[in-house]
Write a structure and sequence with these properties.
mainly alpha, single chain, 5 helices, about 130 residues, elongated
């Protein structure tokens, strides 16, 4: 039973990497999909530029590679960077919600952040 749980836990970083990679690809295909007017517009609009999509794709690949190849230092760095980047997107979508643009994406990103936090607390970073 413990081995099964450890196997499933080993897949967790790869799933988070795939999610990060796919979101980056979405940004690359659909740049400027956030487009927000108002006081936070500049900050939020920066987050949907193509270079941010590239950062997401790069972090997703690095996190998957470091998890599969057991490169612990790279895994730790890429996990923290990925968590930070997803935190910015949570802020972006939550701000849009507060400004009146109803969107449930912030709830999904909050879930990703909780999974990432769990991974950072319990992951294999020898």
């Amino acid at each position: 039973m413990i081995q099964l749980l450890q196997k499933r836990k080993a897949l967790f970083p790869v799933m988070l990497s795939i999610q990060t990679f796919l979101y980056g690809m979405y940004i690359l295909i659909h740049p400027h999909f956030l487009n927000v007017e108002g006081p936070f517009g500049f900050v939020i609009n920066v987050l949907d530029d193509m270079w941010m999509g590239g950062i997401f794709v790069t972090l997703g690949v690095l996190y998957a590679y470091s998890s599969v190849e057991q490169k612990f230092k790279l895994k730790q760095i890429s996990a923290v960077a990925t968590f930070t980047l997803w935190s910015f997107y949570f802020f972006s979508f939550f701000t849009r919600e507060l400004l009146g643009s109803q969107n449930s994406a912030w709830l999904l990103i909050l879930t990703i952040l909780m999974f990432m936090y769990y991974e950072l607390r319990t992951g294999d970073y020898r």
